[in-house]
TrEMBL record, chains A, B:
This is Alpha-rhamnosidase. Pfam families: Bac_rhamnosid-like_N (PF21209), Bac_rhamnosid6H (PF17389). Residues 260-592 form the Alpha-L-rhamnosidase six-hairpin glycosidase domain. It comes from Cohnella silvisoli. SUPFAM superfamilies: Six-hairpin glycosidases. Residues 49-238 form the Alpha-rhamnosidase-like N-terminal domain. InterPro entries: 6-hairpin_glycosidase_sf, 6hp_glycosidase-like_sf, Bac_rhamnosid6H, Rhamnosid-like_N_bacteroidetes. It comes from the Bacteria. PANTHER family: ALPHA-L-RHAMNOSIDASE SIX-HAIRPIN GLYCOSIDASE DOMAIN-CONTAINING PROTEIN, C, PUTATIVE (AFU_ORTHOLOGUE AFUA_3G02880)-RELATED.
Length: 691, 691
C-alpha cells in the first residue's frame, strides 16, 4: 500500500476502468450503419464493489464524498442512513467501508477530508473476498469523475471544398479522426455524411465503409451541429435535404494528448517523411488503447497492439497506454479462449508485458498482471497436445500472417512464441520471488525449446520447417519461425548464418506481404546487419504509399496493384484501412536499429547504442527513456551521444580505432569498438571512420 | 437440439435471464433509504452474444425479427447492412448468425418466418467459442420481450384506516408485498410512506425499516399515483404535506402466479391454520426466485432457498422457480467464493440440484448445471486442508445456524454436507455417463465418510462431536452433524438409536433456536418416529406466532419474549423479518412425514406413502407429482390412497393385519405393513387399526 497523501483522487477497482472502456470502445465499430461487435468475449467492470480503509484521526473530521453509483457507508460497522455527501468521524481509529453499485458506469468514489482522502491506500473488493489496492488515475477533482472523461478535440479546417447541388465534398488534407461540426445548421431534414479515407471512398455513396444519416429538426433556429460518432476520414461527402441549410464545416479531431518524445532525422528527406507519416499514423491509432486502424476494426488486437507498444517506446514512451491496452486485452477471468481467439496473440500478450517491463522497469505492473499471466499460461498449457506442443483447437485461430500457409497441427512458429512466453513467465516469476513457479515454467520452456529444434530444424535447408501434422513433417521452410528464433537468441552462430543466407535472403522462400509481418522480417534483417537492404526496402515500400498520396500508412500495400485497385480488401471496394498501426513500423526499425538504442536491463538501467548509417550521410535522433532520453548524432566521421540516465555501451564499427576524450573504445574485433557511457548528462563525442 | 416447431419464442443465452434478473432483484434491498447490496459477487448477462442456426428452406421465405439490443445479421457469411426487421432467404441451405449487443438488458431475439423461427434449436455463444442450446421461456409474442416481463399485481383494499392530521394509518389485514396506489392524488409536495410488518413498525417513523418519501407535483390535476418500489407491509403510515390531497389508498400486491397443488387438512384446526399461514408465507417469498424474506434481505440465500425448494414440492411443485433460483445462485464462472460466501451454502446448492432431480426427474436441468457443479466442486476440493477436510478460510462464513458455537477448523457438520455433495456429484456424473468423474468423486466421498466417523464419532456420547481445531478434538456433541448424518443414511441402527436418545431427545445438548435449523431437527425427529412430539412442537412454536397475530411466519421466534420485544433483531427495533421463507417448514414436515409422501426414484417414478396420524383424528391431503398427484386420507381405521402416476408403496402401522381388496398388505414386522400401489387412477381403500 502506498503512503497516504492529502491529494484525493477518484478510485476504483483495479483494471475496471480499462476493461469497461475497452468494452465501450470495442462496440463503436460499425460498417455502413450496422454494428460489428468483436467476436471475442467482452468483459466489463464489476457492478458492485466495496471500498475499505482503516484510518486514524487526531481530531474529529468532516469528510465529504462523491460517488458514481448508489452507495452506502459503514463507519465502524454502523450503516450511515440516507445518502450522505458528507459525514463526521471522531478522533481515533476507524474502519470505513463504502459499498457502491452501478451498472451504467464504473463504480468509483472520491473522498475528501482534512486527512482522510481516497487514494491508492484504500482497498477495494468485488465481493469475491479478495481485497486489492484501489486504482486511481489523474482524476483529482470531484467534478472530474472517471465516467466524464473524454479525449480532447482540436478543430481542423478543410483544405478544400467542392460544392455540388445539396452536396459538398470536403477535404481535410490528411487523414483525421473525430467529429464534424457545422455552424450554423438550420432547417429540417436529413443530412448525410459519407466518409472517405480516399476521395473515391467518400464519393462512393454505395460502397463507402462508414456514413451517418442524421435527422435534424432545427427549423429557423440556427444551431451548432456536431456529429455523434467519431469517424476516420480525410474526405467527407456531405449530402443534405433541400430544407437543411448548412454553414461552414470543420472537423473536431479527437486525439490522445501525448507528446513525441522520440525523434528521427537523417540525410534522406524521403526517410524523414516516412518517419513523420509513421509517427502520425501511430498517434492516430494510439488512443484509449492501441487500436489496429481508425476506420476499421478500431479493435484492440494483441498482435497489432504489441507492435504499437514496441513503436511507442521510440516515439511517445507513453507507459499509460501500454498498461491500459494490456489490461483491456486480458480482460477478466475465466480465460476461455486465446486472446482475440488467436493462439499467437496470447503469446504476444506475454511478450508485451515483458517488453513493457524491459523498457520501463515497471515492476508494479508486472505484479498486478502476474495472476492473470498465470491463468492465461495455464490455459495455454492445457491446450498442449500429447507431444507437449500447442495447437489450435476448435475455433482457435492460428494467424501468423495473412499469407497462404498451412496452419494445422504443430506449427513451429507457435511453438517458438510459446517457448518465449514460458521463458517470460519463468523470469517474471523469479522477479516476483515465486521460485517454484519460475522453476515450473522454466523447465517446460527448456524442454519445449529442445523439442522445437529436434523436430523442426532442418540442417539441409538451414532453417525451421513450418509444421507437423499427425506426425508428418511439412518439409517447407517459411520465414516466421526461423526469424523469430533468431531474434529471440535461440540460434547458434552457424544457424544464424544459414537462416540469414538460406531463409531471410532466399527469394525462393515464400514472401511476406503484410506490413505486419514485415515489421519482424525487417527487424530480423537488421539483426543480421542487413541495414542497407532494410533501408532500401523502407524507402521503396513505405515510399510507394507516399507516392500514392498516403498521409498515413496502410493495412496492406501491394506495389504491383494499380492506384485505383489499392483501396479494396476483404471483398469490399474500400475495405482496406488506410491508417493502420502496423503500417508505422519504421518508427521501431529506425529507433532500434538505426539510432540503435535498446535497453539491456529493465527501465534502461543499462542500455546499448549501436547507431548505423547504412549508407546515409547522417542520422540524428532522440530515444526516450522512463526518465530523460538518449540523444544520438552520427555521420561518417563522428558519433555524438548523450544520455540523461542509466549506464550504456556505445558500439560502433570503424575502419580505424575511434577516439573519445571521455573514455577508451575497446576493440571487440571485426572492426567493432565499444565505449562505456557511464556519465549522465555528458555529451560523448567520438571520432571514427566509417567503413 | 430440440425439434423445430413453428412457434417462435424469444431466445437468449442460457442462464442469462436468471442471472441478470438475480442481479436486479438483489439490488432492490434498501434500509431506510440506503441501498444494501449483497456481499457476494453479482454476475450479470453477457452483453455481446451470437445466435446461430443452420436451416434449409423449401421455398423462399420472408423472415421477420425483433431484437433486444443492437444487432447485425450474417446470412451465409454475408453481412446484411442496415438494421433490417425482416429479410428474405432463398430456398436451400443456410447459416444465419445474429450478433446482439446490449448492456442495458439481456440480448434476446425473436425470429418469425413461415418455417424458420427462433426456438431452442438455435445455438448461442458469448464469444467464448462454446455454442450452447439457446434458452427460451414463455415469451411467444414479439411484443412480449423478456425485458418487459413483470410479475402480476392484484389490488387489495385496506381492512381498516385510521386518519390523523395529514396522516393515515392503513391496515391491509395481512402481510402483503407490492405497491401502493392512491386515486386520485393531487397537489404538490411530499408524501411519505412508512411501512410496517407490524403496526408498531409503521407508526415508528424513526425506526421502521423501510419508507418512501415521494415528491409529487400534480397541482390541480387529479392523478392515479402508484409508488415506485415494491415493499413488504401489513400496515402503512402515510404522512403528507398539507398541499397534497389524497383519495382512497389500495395496495397492488405483486405475486408469482403459481397454484397450490398440495393440500393438507386434519382434525386440528390449529394445525390447519398453521399450514395455511405457512403456505401464504412460502407464496410471498416465492417470486422471481426463492428469497429469504420479503422485507429483508430479499436476497437469494442458498440455505434458505434449499428449504423453500423442499417445501415447494409439497405446495406448488413449481419447477421453474427452482431452476431460476439455482441458476441465479450459482452465477457465472469463475467460482471465487462459496455460494453466498458460506461453506454450508455451497453444499446446499448441490443438494438442491439433486433434490430437484429426485422430485422432478428433470435430467435436462442436471445436464445444464453439470459443468457448473463440477467447477464449484473443484473449488470446494481446493479448499480442503491437509487431512482432506473442508474448512472455512479467510472470510468464508461457516454458518450452520445462528446459535453460539465454535466454527473454527474442521467442523463435523460441514464434512457431512461435503460428503453428501460428493456423493451427489458421483451419482449425477454416473447419470450423465461420465464414469471417470463419477469414480473420482465417489472415491473422495467414501474416504471422507470413513474419516468423519473415525474422527468425530464419539461412542460414549453416542453422536458426532462438533469440531476439531489444530488436531484438538472439541468433545462437545451438537445436534447438527448427528441429525444430518442420520437423515442422509450415514448411521447404522445402533448409531441411530444413540443419536435419537442421546442427542435429539437430550435436553443437555445445546438447543436449536431458529426455525431454519428446526426444519431439519423436526424432520430428523420424524425420521425416528417422534411424530407426536413434532406435532406438539409445531402447534406450540408456530401456534405461538399465530397467537401473537402473525399472518405470516417469522425469521425467528422466542416464546419467552414479551409481545413488544418480538420485533427486534440485529440490534434494530424492527429488524426481524416477519415473513421469512424458513418459517414455513410445516409445509414440508406435514407433507413428507404426516401425509408421508416422498419419491424413491427420480420424478416419482416410484414413491413411498407412509401416513402418520400422530394422535390426530384424521388427516387428508394432496401431494403433487410432476404429472398428477397423490391423494391421501387417513383416520384411525381407514387409509385411502390414490395416485395419477408412478408406482408406490404404502406403508402403515396397524394393530391387526390391514386389508385391501386391491392387493395384499405384506407384514414387514414390528406392526408395519406394506401395500404395492401399482395402478394409477385407482382408489386404494385400506382398513386397519391404529396402534
Amino acid at each position: 500500500m502506498g503512503t497516504q497523501t492529502l491529494t484525493a483522487a477518484w478510485i476504483w477497482y483495479p483494471g475496471d476502468l480499462e476493461i469497461g472502456l475497452h468494452r465501450e470502445v470495442s462496440l463503436r465499430r460499425d460498417e455502413r450503419g450496422t454494428i460489428v461487435p468483436p467476436f471475442w468475449r467482452l468483459d466489463t467492470f464489476y457492478g458492485s464493489v466495496k471500498f475499505r480503509k482503516f484510518f486514524e484521526l487526531e481530531a474529529e473530521e468532516e469528510i465529504a464524498l462523491a460517488v458514481e453509483g448508489q452507495y452506502n457507508i459503514t463507519l465502524d460497522g454502523q450503516l450511515l442512513y440516507g445518502n450522505p455527501t458528507s459525514f463526521k468521524a471522531a478522533a481515533g481509529k476507524h474502519e470505513i467501508i463504502i459499498s457502491v453499485v452501478n451498472d451504467r458506469c464504473m463504480p468509483a468514489i472520491f473522498v475528501q477530508g482534512a486527512t482522510l482522502v481516497s487514494d491508492r491506500s484504500w482497498l477495494v473488493c468485488c465481493n469475491n473476498q479478495i481485497w486489492l489496492e484501489a486504482d486511481c488515475g489523474d482524476f483529482h477533482l470531484q467534478q472530474q469523475s472517471p465516467s466524464s472523461f473524454r479525449l480532447p478535440v482540436e478543430e481542423i479546417v478543410p483544405v478544400e471544398e467542392v460544392a455540388g447541388q445539396q452536396a459538398l465534398l470536403v477535404d481535410f488534407g490528411k487523414e483525421i479522426f473525430g467529429f464534424l461540426r457545422i455552424s450554423p445548421l438550420s432547417g429540417n431534414g436529413t443530412i448525410s455524411f459519407y466518409y472517405g479515407e480516399s476521395q473515391e471512398e467518400a464519393l462512393s455513396v454505395e460502397d463507402c465503409e462508414t456514413f451517418d444519416h442524421d435527422h435534424v429538426d432545427f427549423g429557423q433556429n440556427a444551431a451548432v451541429y456536431v456529429t455523434k460518432k467519431a469517424r476516420a476520414f480525410r474526405y467527407v461527402n456531405v449530402i443534405c435535404d433541400e430544407a437543411v441549410h448548412t454553414g461552414p464545416i470543420t472537423a473536431l479531431h479527437e486525439y490522445l494528448p501525448v507528446s513525441r518524445r522520440g525523434q528521427f532525422n537523417c540525410s534522406s528527406e524521403r526517410l524523414n517523411q516516412i518517419w513523420e507519416v509513421s509517427a502520425y499514423t501511430l498517434h492516430l491509432t494510439t488512443r484509449e488503447f492501441f487500436i489496429d486502424g481508425i476506420k476499421r476494426d478500431r479493435w484492440v488486437w494483441s498482435g497489432d497492439a504489441y507492435q504499437s507498444l514496441l513503436m511507442n517506446f521510440y516515439l511517445f514512451f507513453d507507459q499509460a497506454v501500454n498498461r491500459r491496452t494490456w489490461i483491456a486485452l486480458r480482460g477478466k477471468e475465466p480465460v476461455e479462449t486465446h486472446i482475440n481467439h488467436i493462439v499467437d496473440y496470447s503469446f504476444y500478450w506475454f511478450m508485451g508485458v515483458y517488453d513493457h517491463y524491459l523498457y520501463t522497469g515497471d515492476q508494479v505492473f508486472v505484479r498486478q498482471q502476474y495472476p492473470k499471466m498465470a491463468s492465461l499460461m495455464q490455459f495455454c498449457l492445457n491446450r498442449r497436445n500429447d507431444n507437449g506442443m500447442i495447437e489450435g483447437y476448435g475455433d482457435d485461430w492460428v494467424f501468423i500472417d495473412w499469407a497462404d500457409m498451412d496452419k494445422k497441427g504443430e506449427v513451429s512458429f507457435e511453438q517458438i512464441l510459446f517457448c518465449r512466453s514460458l521463458e517470460i513467465m519463468a523470469e517474471l516469476a523469479e522477479l516476483l520471488q515465486d521460485p517454484s513457479q519460475a522453476n515450473y515454467y522454466g523447465e517446460i520452456g527448456a524442454a519445449l525449446k529442445r523439442q522445437i529444434f529436434d523436430v523442426f530444424w532442418d540442417e539441409t535447408q538451414g532453417g525451421l520447417v513450418h509444421n507437423r501434422v499427425n506426425g508428418q513433417l511439412n518439409g517447407q521452410v517459411t520465414r516466421y519461425a526461423s526469424m523469430f528464433a533468431m531474434m529471440l537468441g535461440y540460434l547458434n552462430e552457424e544457424q544464424i548464418g544459414t537462416v540469414k543466407a538460406d531463409v531471410l535472403l532466399n527469394d525462393c522462400i515464400q514472401k511476406i506481404k503484410t506490413p505486419y509481418m514485415r515489421f519482424y522480417e525487417l527487424a530480423a534483417l537488421c539483426e543480421v546487419g542487413e541495414h542497407a537492404n532494410v533501408l532500401k526496402e523502407i524507402e521503396k515500400y513505405w515510399g510507394g504509399m507516399l507516392d500514392l498520396g498516403a498521409t498515413t500508412f496502410w493495412e496492406e500495400y501491394d506495389p504491383l496493384l494499380r492506384p485505383n485497385e489499392q483501396y479494396a480488401m476483404y471483398g469490399r471496394p474500400y475495405g482496406k484501412s488506410l491508417c493502420h498501426a502496423w503500417g508505422a513500423s519504421p518508427l521501431y526499425l529506425l529507433g532500434k536499429y538505426f539510432l540503435g538504442v535498446q535497453p539491456t536491463s529493465p527501465g534502461y538501467a543499462t542500455y546499448r547504442v549501436e547507431p548505423v548509417l547504412a549508407g546515409l550521410e547522417w542520422i540524428r535522433g532522440v530515444v526516450p527513456m522512463p526518465e530523460g532520453q538518449i540523444e544520438i548524432y552520427m555521420d561518417r566521421t563522428q558519433v555524438i551521444v548523450s544520455s540523461d540516465a542509466g549506464e550504456g555501451v556505445l558500439r560502433i564499427r570503424s575502419a580505424v580505432p575511434p577516439t573519445c576524450e571521455l573514455g577508451p573504445l575497446i576493440d571487440k574485433g571485426d572492426g567493432y569498438y565499444e565505449l562505456q557511457l557511464n556519465q549522465q548528462g555528458i555529451i560523448y563525442p567520438i571520432y571514427y571512420t566509417a567503413l
